[in-house]
Amino acid sequence: MGYDLIIRGSTIVTASDTFVADIAVEKGRIAAVGHIHSADDVKTVNGRGLVAVPGGIDVHTHFDMPFMGATTADDFTSGSAAAIFGGTTTVIDFAIQKRGKPLQEALDTWHEKAEGKTAVDYAFHMIVVDLPEKGLKEMDRIVDQGVSTFKLFMAYPGIFMSDDATIFRALTRTKENGGMVCMHAENGGVIDVLVKKALAEGRIEPKYHALTRPMSAEAEATRRAIALAEIAGVPIYFVHLSAGDAMDEVRRARERALPVFAETCPQYLYLSYEDYERPGFEGAKFVMSPPLRPKGNEERLWKGLAQNWLQVVSTDHCSFCMKSGGGKPGKELGKKDFSKIPNGAPGVETRMLLLWDAVQKGRLSPNRFVEITATAPAKLFGLYPRKGHLGPGADADIVLIDPKKKHTISAKTHHARVDYNPYESRTVDGSIRHVFLRGKQMVDGDRLTGRPSEGRFLRRSPVSPN
Ligand code: URP
Ligand code: ZN
Ligand code: ZN
C-alpha cells in the first residue's frame, strides 16, 4: 500500500455512479476508491466540495496542421497546454497523408511534431487522402502501430475529398484490420458549385461560407456514408456532426441496429449561424466546416446527446489567428473571398467547462457529462479501461472541478496561442481546480505544476464498437 497520492472526500462522478469517497493513486494508476487509510506522509489533496471526474478525452484536435495556405496557431506545445488547463488529459490528433505519399510518412511526421512536446497523453488518427489498392496493406500496418482510425472526407475537392470507391475500399479494409472510418460528411461537389456561384455574384463575406454549405449537403453525405458502411458491413463514426438533419440519419441507422456513431462539438451546441452576421470581418472567427447552423438546430443536438443518438462531444480544435503574424497567415487571408478563410476554430480548452456548465444548468446529468467527454470516447477509440474511467487499474487522470466557482472565458487568459476565443466573455458555472495526469499534478488553479512534456503516445487497440 505504498500510495503516492490520496485525494480525500471529493464527489466522484463516473458514467454510471455518483458518490463521495477518497481516491488513492499508486505508480500513476488508481489503486483504490473508497474510505482509505494511509500513512501520514502520503501527499494528500483535499477534494471536499469538489467534483472528481475522469480526465477529458478530446478525440478531435488539429495541432500544428497545415491547411488552406495557413498553419494552425497551436502546435502540440500550446495546444496541449490549453487542453490540460481545460481538464482534458488525452487528445487524439490527426496525422495527414500527403497525396501520393505513404501513410507511414504522415505518421512519422506527426510523431515528430508531438514527441516530447505535449502536456497531455496523445494518440493519432490517420487522414487518408488517397488509397490505391496497393495502399490497403499499409492501412493494416498503421493499425498495428496503435493508430486504428482513419478519417476520410466527402468534402474539400482537390484537397482531401475521396470518391465513393476510395471510401468503400477503406471501409471494407477496416473489417480485416479492426480499424474504423471517421467520416467528414458534407457533399463537397455540390458545395463547390454553390461556392463558385456565390463568388461570381460578388458574395464574399464570411456568412456565405455557411450559406453555401446547407444542412442537406451534410445530411445527404451522412446518409450515403451510412449506406456504404452498411454494404461493407462495418461500423462508421461521424466527426463534427452539426446538422439536426444529419443526426436524424444517424438516429435512423441506430434504430436499425447499425453500428453508427457520431460526435458533435460545443460550437454547434452554443453558437449559431447568427454569429456569421457579426459586424465587419468578425464572422470569420466562426468559419469552420461544417458551418454553424441556424438558431434552433442546437436544441435538436442537445436532445440527441440526451437520447444517445450522439455519443461523444469533441472539439475539432483547429485554431487560426484572425491576424497574420510571425510568418503565419491568419483568417484575414479570406477578407475578400470567404472561401479562402482557413476553416477551423479553437475549443480544446473550453469543452469541459462549457459542458459542465450544461450540467449545472440541468441540461445534462453529471454521469452523462462523464460519458460523452471521457468514457464513450475511450471505449469507441480503443483506450478503455486505461482511460475514461475513475476506478482501480485506470490511469490516474483526474480532474477536480469546483462547482461553486465561476469562470469567465477570454482570449486574454486562455492558454491557446490563438488571438481570439469564440466564447469571449461568456461566464460558466464551474471552474477547473486541479488536473492530474497519471497521478502527476499538472494544474493547480491557474498554475501549470507539471512538466509541459509529460504527455506520452498512446497505442490504441483495434476498435470494435458495439
Ligand atoms: O473547419 C474545420 N473543421 N477544420 C478542420 C478540418 C476538419 O474538417 O476537421
Ligand atoms: Zn472534418
Ligand atoms: Zn477536424
Q: Can you describe what's shown?
A:
The protein is an alpha/beta fold. It has a domain at 55-370: TIM Barrel (Alpha-Beta Barrel). The chain contains 12 helices and 19 strands. Strands 1, 2, 3, 4, 5, 16, 17, 18 and 19 form a 9-stranded mixed beta sheet that branches. Strands 6-9-10-11-12-13-14-15 form an 8-stranded parallel beta sheet. β18 and β19 (447-448) form a beta hairpin. It starts with a strand and ends in an 18-residue tail after the last strand. The mean pLDDT is 97. The structure holds N-(aminocarbonyl)-beta-alanine and zinc ion (2 copies). The site of N-(aminocarbonyl)-beta-alanine has 9 residues, from loops.
Chain-wise SSE layout:
Elements: E1 5-13, E2 18-26, E3 29-34, E4 43-46, E5 51-54, E6 56-61, E7 66-67, E8 70-71, H1 76-85, E9 88-96, H2 103-114, E10 121-127, H3 136-144, E11 149-153, H4 164-177, E12 180-184, H5 188-200, H6 207-211, H7 215-232, E13 236-238, H8 244-255, E14 260-264, H9 266-270, H10 297-306, E15 312-313, H11 351-360, H12 366-380, E16 398-408, E17 427-437, E18 440-444, E19 447-448
Parallel strand pairs: 1-4, 1-5, 6-9, 9-10, 10-11, 11-12, 12-13, 13-14, 14-15
Antiparallel strand pairs: 1-2, 2-3, 5-16, 7-8, 16-17, 17-18, 18-19
Bound molecules: N-(aminocarbonyl)-beta-alanine and zinc ion (2 copies).
